[in-house]
Each structure stands twice: as C-alpha cells, then as structure tokens.
UniProtKB/TrEMBL annotation:
InterPro entries: Aerolysin-like, Natterin_C. This is Uncharacterized protein. Gene3D superfamilies: Proaerolysin, chain A, domain 3. Pfam families: ETX_MTX2. It comes from the Bacteria.
C-alpha cells in the first residue's frame, strides 16, 4: 500500500507544543512529583531526587519542532456509501451434446487499484512523523486496515493506494443443446465519511522548571515527555473527512444465450 502526502487548505492547526503544555497544567502536583522522582531514580540521579521540592507547571516549556506520532482509533460519523458493479470476466459455454450435460469451470483472476484520502480539518503546526492505523468503514466482505508511516508538516492530508487481487472459481453445468453466458462481477464500494481519530505523541523532551529544597532556588531540568505524561495526557483528537473506494466482494450471474450449436 502506498501513501502520499499533499497540502490542503485548513482553518485550524493543532500546535502540539501548546496542546502538551495545556494538558501538563491539568496534572496534579503529587502525580508530577512522583513521575519526576521515578524517572530520576531510574537514571540514577539520586542527588536531584533529594533536591526536588516542587514542579513549576506554569514555567514548563515544550519546545521541540518535531515529534513522532501515532494516529489511530478512527471513528466515523454518517457514512455515505454507494455500490457499483463492474464486469471482471465473462465466458460463454455451449453444449452441443443432445444427451449429456457439460461440466465447465469458470475461473478468473482480477487485479485493481483503489485509493482513499484522509483530509484533516486541523493541520499539524509542529512537523511530525506519524504512524497511521485505520480501519475503513466499507461494506460487503472487505475488512481493510491501512497501516504505514507518513510525514506531516502544517496543513496536511494523506492518501492511500492499495492493489488487490481477486481469484474466483465456480463449476457450471450446461444442459444438453443449450448455451450460457457466465459473468463475473466485482462490486466496488465508494465511501465518504467524517471521522475523528486519536493522535498520540510518542517521543520528545520537556524542559521542566523545578523548585529546589532549601535556598537553592530554581532550576530547569529536561525530562522525556513520556516520563512526565501518560498516554492519555499525550493524546489529542483530530477530525477530518475520508473519501475513497474499495473492492468489496465478487459474485457471478449465469444467463441463457442463443448460439449456433455445432
């Protein structure tokens, strides 16, 4: 499956640094202190653990210009779907025997490409590399999940191109002195749907302003974002619209025809 990024015009942007800062302000002091102590202990910074008196959330700075993200948990609103059937293969079988039925095998292989476009209502103000996992709201037998790495800068969408191959085989019985046409169809589902998805920050650092014990004043310490914020606190909602198509299923019709029998 191939992914392409293209610029689109958006009205809003998700500034990841600002969003992380706002979430950071909602975390209670006791939780932040424990997370800082746990991280400092894990790296052997025992003196810093001893010096730490408080976290100054209002002075903490999220400063990076690039983050790795995971975009997943797509949920869709009202899905507009339409189905169109295309002829994938057809054969005509004639049975000239006056007595015996003809046993024929109708088989074919069909390949096609389909695409989907995910257009975000919000852009991403901070450049980011994102892993994407999304199930598509398709009809029929299709159960398609797209998964890949894409690169984001501000005001982006991404599109997918997927190649699929279908194999079909069916036995056909043709009565004596008759002919039939066997037509193999592939049903294409076209979709258009609004979506919400979850965007999680996977990496990065935060410059934490800390109050030190005694008369040592204040200092700025660097912590991994993942050490100071939970998965939920590093997650945000993006919205947008999905449009595209996907081969959903195959079926066969057998029709009597009039042909000259030899």
């Amino acid at each position: 499956m191939n992914f392409q990024i293209r610029n689109v015009s958006t009205q809003n942007e998700l500034d990841i640094n600002t969003a992380l800062f706002k979430k950071f302000q909602t975390i209670d002091q006791a939780t932040l202190m424990q997370r800082a102590i746990d991280y400092l202990t894990s790296i052997g910074a025992t003196q810093r653990v001893a010096d730490l008196a408080a976290i100054e959330t209002g002075l903490t700075e999220f400063y990076q210009d690039h983050y790795d993200l995971l975009i997943t948990d797509f949920s869709y609103g009202e899905v507009k779907q339409s189905l169109k059937s295309l002829i994938a293969h057809q054969e005509t079988y004639a049975n000239a025997s006056p007595d015996d039925p003809l046993e024929a095998t109708f088989s074919y292989e069909y390949s096609r490409q389909d695409g989907q476009s995910f257009k975000f209502t919000e852009g991403l103000k901070v450049g980011a590399k994102a892993g994407v996992k999304a199930k598509l709201p398709l009809v029929g037998e299709a159960n398609v999940e797209v998964s890949a790495e894409v690169s984001f800068s501000a005001e982006q969408s991404f599109s997918t191109t997927e190649s699929s191959k279908w194999n079909f085989l069916q036995k056909v019985t043709v009565k004596p002195l008759t002919s039939v046409k066997v037509i193999g169809y592939i049903r294409i589902g076209k979709i258009d749907a609004p979506f919400n998805c979850n965007v999680k920050v996977l990496d990065g650092n935060v410059l934490v302003e800390v109050k030190l014990k005694g008369d040592k004043g204040y200092s700025s310490w660097v912590f991994p974002v993942t050490a100071m914020m939970s998965d939920a606190e590093r997650s945000f909602v993006l919205s947008g619209n999905l449009s595209g198509s996907e081969a959903s299923d195959i079926y066969v019709k057998v029709e009597p025809v009039t042909t000259a029998l030899l």
